[in-house]
């Protein structure tokens, strides 16, 4: 697996973490059987991905407790994506315990094994396999203990429902609880134990409802902003008018006049603290400050030329055949350019953290997708050893890649140190837009060609600044080249990974181009794809989507408003079909979306469907309306009034087809979003004959394209 | 500073507060009821929705002193005697949530909608819920959950 297939984040700054020592850990969580992760073994795949060694870490993967319940420790966090369900499903099956006997301990750096972060649809692919090995090891230990207790050879024993049972006499049994009572057994995974075949699974593959919904419908669920500590202060931080502006002078006197307000200044960090968050907010608005503004004058219209001018490096992602020959073979040549704007993550929960320092121990509860990364960053910011820093990620209120950075956690920790009190930092919505790490604006240029019988003969593809994920085409094209262009930092603010990074941009461009060629060839867009594909996995999902959708062939534009797009992300293949209606004013109503998804073995079909639906709904936003407006570093969108995300009335009928497969499970949180730009663009073309080359496809742009 | 009295989830509350403060922060901070969420701070997203005399209000924009003499219901007050409200049960049985951050506001908005219109059509649910935002994309399931809850409440009448 190539690193760039997943994301373009740089994790080289992750240092060797050291958490609780083993004795402290066991004291904290009690007795039983512990299966530990040892150096360099099970998370190797993930470690190698980022080109480094796995840090030394001796936290447990799982604990069989003396009451028979099972603790599963994972550095992954739950932000809605549902691994809180799918992880215990895999574990329960491998360990042979009832699903509801598994308790999840998530995102706590003192208790959980090191983890690089929850992103890239990696949990099921990279965390679950070693977890299953740990469970297999635990089961082997339990069988050994039972063999002693029952005075039987291990071959005569089997496990089921949290008990070890004699194969020929199911009444002769001993429960895991009985076996672990009063024991403290530690095992280390040094050799990989054999794990079960997928066919033996009884819990994996069955739809399971969310296990966190009771807490969430009663308001009991705790997010980072819900942690209350005695003596805590709420901080509001002075923010610049533009990203990258530098503070010249500041007058805090009006803020200081408000009763109970404490003003703290540490370099560029100017904060107001109070026992009430709303009073702190009022006080910070009274601060007068002057700034040196950044010089960038690029805006949301000129950015695309700026990107093309800035690009200085390029990389060939794939090539084959000979482009010149491809050009000669081509009956029609198509030269197109696709644009997409900056897009915000905009989770409903803002970046929030609370930090508490007791003695030399720093604890930060934070809305973060990468607790272990934050641990190192907080340690560095405070000048303390990482072993004295504990990060806990409670429920996270949506992340989508935007909470891989945790500036607010560092701010809270600094302020806790400066004030000697526990401090909460909860960003407001304008701060959320100012410091979001947007999905980068990008340009894709494609030159392609078809023969007179509708075969693609040429594909010359270049993507600027989106990244390479999803850029490689998978059609049967003899002469092709795929390039990524980058260099420097052309963005006037932060950018980063946004759900299926790069792939939304690349899939929009590729699938639009395919459609343009199909229309020119006068061939139905599904037929055109099938004619130009040899990859059976894609062919299968296209056909599955067509079956569910009731696709009938017609050359575009047919006036029906049908669109099609397909692609691959995080090891999973997806094909989408959509039906849209375009009003006279350019407003698009998406009536139906069908998604066929081949994600290997489906761990939780219910959870997989939720993710597909979430991808489709969120994807409508970047397809139709989401676009960050800016002038230099000044972000003009500060809330949901101008930054329009998908709303109730946009909701199409959604049907999901999950392809049956016993191949290893692949990613599920991101793939189904990648086609949303392409499938809607193609449907708009089919409805109106107008081709859209820029995301989002706003009514204005649609009206312009129709002229 | 002003002293006000109101019913909060069926219990009387007396509190003395600065009259410029919004109800959201009084609930979350002074009264430690954190189930009401802060999302946008401008009344746009609906995460902070609570019921004031059964009417859904954006508590981030609602001066707390206006609660004087009123009945306030937050998400914590919806279950009665340990029994979940049909909407809460339906949100669970439909998996009508992912991260859960908008859920409190969704459920309370739907609660008020069903008081006004006990048998809403799909279109009426969409119209009534339109100004509540969910980033995880649970809209379709929320619509179904509201329909299921409406049905259950109808059968109970």
What's the Cα radius of gyration of chain B? 15 Å
Distance between the termini of chain A: 46 Å
Oligomer: heterodimer
pLDDT < 50 runs, ≥5 residues of chain A: 1-19, 39-58
CATH class of the largest domain in chain A: Alpha Beta
What is the second-level CATH architecture of the largest domain in chain B? Roll
Secondary structure tally: strands of chain A: 29
> Biggest sheet of chain A: strands, sense, closure?
7 strands, mixed
Biggest interface reads: A-B, 60 and 61 residues
Structural class of chain B: alpha+beta
- Give start-end ranges of low-pLDDT stretches of chain B: none
Task: Give an overview in words.
The complex is a heterodimer of chains A (707) and B (157). With 707 residues, chain A is α+β, with helices and mostly antiparallel strands. The relative contact order of chain A is 0.12. Chain A has three domains: 3-204, Aldehyde Oxidoreductase, domain 4, CATH 3.30.365; 224-293 and 351-426, Aldehyde Oxidoreductase, domain 4; 303-343 and 438-706, Aldehyde Oxidoreductase, domain 4 (2-Layer Sandwich), CATH 3.30.365.10. In chain A, 29% of the residues lie in helices and 24% in strands. Chain A is flat and about 80 Å long. In chain A, strand 17 (361-366), helix 11 (371-382) and strand 18 form a beta-alpha-beta unit. In chain A, helix 11 packs parallel to helix 12 (407-419). In chain A, the strands form seven sheets. Chain A has a seven-stranded mixed β-sheet with strand order 11-12-9-19-16-17-18. A six-stranded mixed β-sheet of chain A has the order 14-22-21-20-15-29, sandwiched between helices. Chain A has a five-stranded mixed β-sheet with strand order 4-3-2-1-8. With 157 residues, chain B is of the alpha+beta class. Chain B folds into two domains: 2-77, Roll (Ubiquitin-like (UB roll)), CATH 3.10.20.30; 86-156, [2Fe-2S]-binding domain (DNA polymerase, domain 1). Chain B has five helices and five strands. In chain B, strands 2-1-5-3-4 form a five-stranded mixed β-sheet, with helices on one face. Chain B is globular and about 45 Å long. The N and C termini of chain B lie far apart (44 Å). The model of chain B has no long low-confidence stretch (mean pLDDT 97). The chains are: A alpha+beta (707), B alpha+beta (157). At the A-B interface, helix 6, helix 8 and helix 17 of A face helix 1, helix 2, helix 3, helix 4 and helix 5 of B.
């Amino acid at each position: 697996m190539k690193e760039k297939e997943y994301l373009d984040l740089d994790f080289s700054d992750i240092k060797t973490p050291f958490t609780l020592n083993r004795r402290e850990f066991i004291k904290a969580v009690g007795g039983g059987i512990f299966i530990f992760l040892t150096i360099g073994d099970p998370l190797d795949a993930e470690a190698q991905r980022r080109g480094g060694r796995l840090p030394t870490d001796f936290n447990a993967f799982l604990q069989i407790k003396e009451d028979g319940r099972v603790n599963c420790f994972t550095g992954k966090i739950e932000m809605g994506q549902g691994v809180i369900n799918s992880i215990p499903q895999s574990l329960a099956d491998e360990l042979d315990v009832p699903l509801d006997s598994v308790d999840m301990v998530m995102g706590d750096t003192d208790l959980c094994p090191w983890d690089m972060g929850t992103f890239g649809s990696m949990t099921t692919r990279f965390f679950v396999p070693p977890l299953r090995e740990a469970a297999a090891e635990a089961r082997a230990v339990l069988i050994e203990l039972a063999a002693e207790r029952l005075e039987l050879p291990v071959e005569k024993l089997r496990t089921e429902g949290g008990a070890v049972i004699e194969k020929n006499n199911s009444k002769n049994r001993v429960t895991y609880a009985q076996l672990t009572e009063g024991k403290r057994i530690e095992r280390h995974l040094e050799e990989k134990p054999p794990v079960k075949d997928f066919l033996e699974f009884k819990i994996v593959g069955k739809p399971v409802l969310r296990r966190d919904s009771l807490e969430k419908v009663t308001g009991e669920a705790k997010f980072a902003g819900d942690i209350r500590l005695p003596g805590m202060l709420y901080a509001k931080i002075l923010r610049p008018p533009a990203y990258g502006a530098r503070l010249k002078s500041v007058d805090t006197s009006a803020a200081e006049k408000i009763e109970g307000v404490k003003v703290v200044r540490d370099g560029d960090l100017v904060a107001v603290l109070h026992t009430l968050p709303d009073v702190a907010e009022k006080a910070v608005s009274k601060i007068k400050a002057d700034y040196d503004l950044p010089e960038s004058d690029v805006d949301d219209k000129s950015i695309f030329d700026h990107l093309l001018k800035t690009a200085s490096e390029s990389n060939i992602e794939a090539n084959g055949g000979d482009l010149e020959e491809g050009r000669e073979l081509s009956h029609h040549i198509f030269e197109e350019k696709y644009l997409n704007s900056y897009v915000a993550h905009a989770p409903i929960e803002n970046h929030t953290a609370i930090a508490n320092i007791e003695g030399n121990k720093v604890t930060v509860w934070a809305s973060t997708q990468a607790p272990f990364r934050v641990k190192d960053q907080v340690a560095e910011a405070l000048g303390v050893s990482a072993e004295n820093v504990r990060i806990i990620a409670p429920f996270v209120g949506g992340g989508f890649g935007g909470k891989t950075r945790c500036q607010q956690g560092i701010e809270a920790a600094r302020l806790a140190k400066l004030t000697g009190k526990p401090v909460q930092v909860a960003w407001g919505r304008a701060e959320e837009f100012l410091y979001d790490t947007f999905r980068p604006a990008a340009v894709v240029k494609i030159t392609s060609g078809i023969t007179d019988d509708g075969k693609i003969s040429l594909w010359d593809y270049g993507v600027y600044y989106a990244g390479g994920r999803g850029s490689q085409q998978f059609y049967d094209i003899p002469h092709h080249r795929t390039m990524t262009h980058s260099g420097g930092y052309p963005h006037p603010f932060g950018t980063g990974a946004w759900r299926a990074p790069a792939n939304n941009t690349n899939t929009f461009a590729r699938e639009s181009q395919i459609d343009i060629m199909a229309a020119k060839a006068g061939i139905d867009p599904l037929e055109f794809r099938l004619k130009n594909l040899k990859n059976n996995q894609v062919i299968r999902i296209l056909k599955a989507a067509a079956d569910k959708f009731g696709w009938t062939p017609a050359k575009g534009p047919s006036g029906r408003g049908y669109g099609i797009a397909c692609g691959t992300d995080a090891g999973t293949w997806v094909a989408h079909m959509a039906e849209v209606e375009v009003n006279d004013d350019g407003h698009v109503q998406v009536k139906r979306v069908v998604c066929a998804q081949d994600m290997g073995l489906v761990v939780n079909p219910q959870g997989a469907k939720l993710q597909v639906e979430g991808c489709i709904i969120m994807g409508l936003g970047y397809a139709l309306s989401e676009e960050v407006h800016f002038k230099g570093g000044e972000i003009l969108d500060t809330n949901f009034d101008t930054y329009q995300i998908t709303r109730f009335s946009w909701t199409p009928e959604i049907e999901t087809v999950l392809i049956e497969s016993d191949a290893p499970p692949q990613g599920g949180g991101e793939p189904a979003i990648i086609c949303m730009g392409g499938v809607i663009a193609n449907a708009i073309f089919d409805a109106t004959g107008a081709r859209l080359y820029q995301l989002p496809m706003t009514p204005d742009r649609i009206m312009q394209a129709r002229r | 500073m002003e002293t006000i009295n109101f019913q909060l989830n069926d219990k009387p509350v007396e509190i003395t507060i600065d009259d410029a403060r919004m109800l959201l922060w009084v609930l979350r901070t002074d009264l430690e009821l954190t189930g009401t969420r802060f999302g946008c701070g401008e009344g746009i997203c609906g995460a902070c929705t609570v019921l004031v005399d059964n009417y859904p209000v954006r508590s981030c924009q609602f001066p707390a002193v206006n609660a004087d003499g009123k009945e306030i219901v937050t998400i914590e007050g919806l279950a009665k005697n340990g029994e979940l409200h049909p909407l809460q049960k339906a949100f669970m049985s439909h998996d009508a949530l992912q991260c859960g951050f908008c859920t409190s506001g969704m459920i309370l908005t739907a609660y008020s909608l069903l008081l006004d219109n006990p048998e809403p059509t799909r279109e009426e649910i969409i119209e009534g819920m339109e100004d509540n935002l969910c980033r995880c994309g649970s809209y379709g399931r929320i619509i179904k959950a509201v329909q299921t809850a409406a049905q259950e409440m109808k059968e109970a009448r």
